[in-house]
Amino acid sequence: MSNQIEITHSFAGVDFPQLERSLRHPRTLVSSLLSLLTGFVTVVACVPLFSVLFMLIYRGGKRLSLSLFTQTPPSAFESGGGFGNAIVGTLTMVGIAALISVPFGVLAAVFLAEFGPKSKTASAVRFCAKLLTGFPSILAGVFAYAAVVLMTGSYSAPAGGVALSILMLPIVMLTAEESIKMVPHKMKEAAIGMGATQTQVVWRVTLPSAMPGMLTGVMLAVARASGETAPLLFTALNSNYWIMQDGNLALMEPTASLAVLIFNFSGVPFESQIELAWAAALVLVLIVLAVNIGGQVLSRKRVTR
Amino acid sequence: MAITLEGDVPIDSVASPPSRLDIAGDRTFRGLTYVFSWMTIFLVLYIVYEIAGKAFPAIQEYGFGFVTGTTWDANRGEFGVFPEIWGTLYSSILALMLGGFFGVSIAIFLTQDFLPPKLEVVFKNIVELLAAIPSVVYGLWGIYVVIPALRPTANWVHEHLGWIPFFETSLSGPGMLPAAMVLSIMILPTISAVSRDALCSVPHRLKEAAFGLGATRWEAILGVILPTSATGIFGALVLGFGRALGETMALAMLVGNSNQVSLSLFSPANTLAALLANNFPEAGKLEEGVLMYAALILMAITLLVNLVGTAIMNRAQRRLSGGER
């Protein structure tokens, strides 16, 4: 400290110790403490993810076997069984939802990005799509119950599919719009210069170039829909049987799904069903993560032509 | 390609004017995309119409008393959702406090050059993965991990600090605190991702100016960067709040489905979404209409919060792209 006092003499008015970075100054101390705090918080936030993954592997992995995929759920005091019917049910309903939401979302996105990007209709549509992004999933279920279940008179896979499609639609639409917008203008203009109509440009140039980005959006939407439970609770209900019975497709019957099976078995006092719930959760998370990662890989392959 | 100056059309060119068929196809396709765009708007209106229409008889019968009533008894035909509205707001506010603190801290830590860029990406992906886990899996995890882990601490706190209203009951199983904690984990990725965008869009020169004046890293963050991105971060919090209000499964599994209004963090409660999830599948004709009324209230609350959130985000975007301040 003593030699610094000498320097202060020669540079009167400059407070040199204040310019030094030392933890003894309250301002640097506060700064370092806050840095430590945020770093700690970030690490703590990662704990739940690893805890969930660990429990899934630890408790769900125990029951993992081939029979899980080929058998139907056990009743209360039975052991064994599987959830093959629930996997098929989930795939069926997500498939129905994709069949509805992908054409719907892509066509609307083409309008938003190509035909009327600045029109009043477009901003109203974007606004509605954003509202749907934040729409609670249980309300999608309530709507599908009112619109489909009450109309057709039975709980069914299509009713579940309609509920899921409402949740998928805004994701598909908004990501498709973004990826269509990213197609370089000169490519479209080249096609227009050759005498193509705008529709031909969209089909032959824009959509093929925007395909990877749109697929990413579809994959994200599929991943979200596969994990949803609330919209299926009272649209598809649940079932202990396969959707194909004796060669007939029982589409208009209550349909099982992985997510609802986990919910139903989570609160029961029977060990074998709880174990099955954990195994189903492991399978569900694997499906969701695989679809998610698939989407991410696709999004890295952006248009490079 | 053989393009002649005289203007003859060369044979090997693909260029040609659109035929009538092409033009007709073009019109049809444009019309089709226009129709589907409008269908998005009609879908939203139809959803509101359908739920409101089914709720209408119950609204006529129970009126505003439904919102303030506290009993739910299908056998006596007495219905009130005040405890559920209270539980929805209480759990969401608790989750917002926890998730907001964590989400914004993470956003700061991952945008202000604390870590090498590669590590930043790793942490960002981990936080985003939190959003990929289905809510029913969080519910299962909550039942078998969070509740048993919280119970000893919660009961110790209740024994020693039970005179504080927040701790006035013991945690016997499902309850408000585990539900709010799991809920905060679920809204954390939303809050952190949107706040990250807000923090990233702060112009670099502002931060550099602060450093040039001798500010420490945190003086720059707290004095310059956070105030500049405040609108965006506030929007992130509102959107996270909106998600928390509508989240169903984790709450249906963890909150305890008990019709009571309590400040205690350890007592079971109920939320609108959980009420729908648990009662709808077995509801009779009368209860069904009443549940539609509850759904309508939930829709009104979430639409309102999401509208406010979207408006704030739009304002934040406009302000930063204009480069003011």
UniProtKB/TrEMBL annotation, chain A:
<feature type="transmembrane region" description="Helical">
    <location>
        <begin position="157"/>
        <end position="176"/>
    </location>
</feature>
<keyword id="KW-1003">Cell membrane</keyword>
<protein>
    <recommendedName>
        <fullName>Phosphate transport system permease protein PstA</fullName>
    </recommendedName>
</protein>
<keyword id="KW-0472">Membrane</keyword>
<dbReference type="InterPro" id="IPR005672">
    <property type="entry name" value="Phosphate_PstA"/>
</dbReference>
<feature type="transmembrane region" description="Helical">
    <location>
        <begin position="87"/>
        <end position="115"/>
    </location>
</feature>
<keyword id="KW-0813">Transport</keyword>
<feature type="transmembrane region" description="Helical">
    <location>
        <begin position="127"/>
        <end position="151"/>
    </location>
</feature>
<feature type="domain" description="ABC transmembrane type-1">
    <location>
        <begin position="87"/>
        <end position="295"/>
    </location>
</feature>
<dbReference type="InterPro" id="IPR000515">
    <property type="entry name" value="MetI-like"/>
</dbReference>
<dbReference type="InterPro" id="IPR035906">
    <property type="entry name" value="MetI-like_sf"/>
</dbReference>
<keyword id="KW-1133">Transmembrane helix</keyword>
<feature type="transmembrane region" description="Helical">
    <location>
        <begin position="276"/>
        <end position="298"/>
    </location>
</feature>
<feature type="transmembrane region" description="Helical">
    <location>
        <begin position="33"/>
        <end position="58"/>
    </location>
</feature>
<dbReference type="Pfam" id="PF00528">
    <property type="entry name" value="BPD_transp_1"/>
</dbReference>
<keyword id="KW-0592">Phosphate transport</keyword>
<dbReference type="InterPro" id="IPR051408">
    <property type="entry name" value="Phosphate_transprt_permease"/>
</dbReference>
<keyword id="KW-0812">Transmembrane</keyword>
<comment type="similarity">
    <text>Belongs to the binding-protein-dependent transport system permease family. CysTW subfamily.</text>
</comment>
From TrEMBL, chain B:
<keyword id="KW-0813">Transport</keyword>
<dbReference type="Pfam" id="PF00528">
    <property type="entry name" value="BPD_transp_1"/>
</dbReference>
<feature type="transmembrane region" description="Helical">
    <location>
        <begin position="89"/>
        <end position="110"/>
    </location>
</feature>
<dbReference type="InterPro" id="IPR051124">
    <property type="entry name" value="Phosphate_Transport_Permease"/>
</dbReference>
<protein>
    <recommendedName>
        <fullName>Phosphate transport system permease protein</fullName>
    </recommendedName>
</protein>
<dbReference type="InterPro" id="IPR011864">
    <property type="entry name" value="Phosphate_PstC"/>
</dbReference>
<feature type="transmembrane region" description="Helical">
    <location>
        <begin position="290"/>
        <end position="312"/>
    </location>
</feature>
<feature type="transmembrane region" description="Helical">
    <location>
        <begin position="176"/>
        <end position="199"/>
    </location>
</feature>
<keyword id="KW-0472">Membrane</keyword>
<comment type="similarity">
    <text>Belongs to the binding-protein-dependent transport system permease family. CysTW subfamily.</text>
</comment>
<feature type="transmembrane region" description="Helical">
    <location>
        <begin position="220"/>
        <end position="241"/>
    </location>
</feature>
<comment type="function">
    <text>Part of the binding-protein-dependent transport system for phosphate; probably responsible for the translocation of the substrate across the membrane.</text>
</comment>
<feature type="transmembrane region" description="Helical">
    <location>
        <begin position="31"/>
        <end position="49"/>
    </location>
</feature>
<keyword id="KW-1003">Cell membrane</keyword>
<feature type="domain" description="ABC transmembrane type-1">
    <location>
        <begin position="85"/>
        <end position="309"/>
    </location>
</feature>
<dbReference type="InterPro" id="IPR000515">
    <property type="entry name" value="MetI-like"/>
</dbReference>
<feature type="transmembrane region" description="Helical">
    <location>
        <begin position="122"/>
        <end position="147"/>
    </location>
</feature>
<keyword id="KW-1133">Transmembrane helix</keyword>
<dbReference type="InterPro" id="IPR035906">
    <property type="entry name" value="MetI-like_sf"/>
</dbReference>
<keyword id="KW-0592">Phosphate transport</keyword>
<keyword id="KW-0812">Transmembrane</keyword>
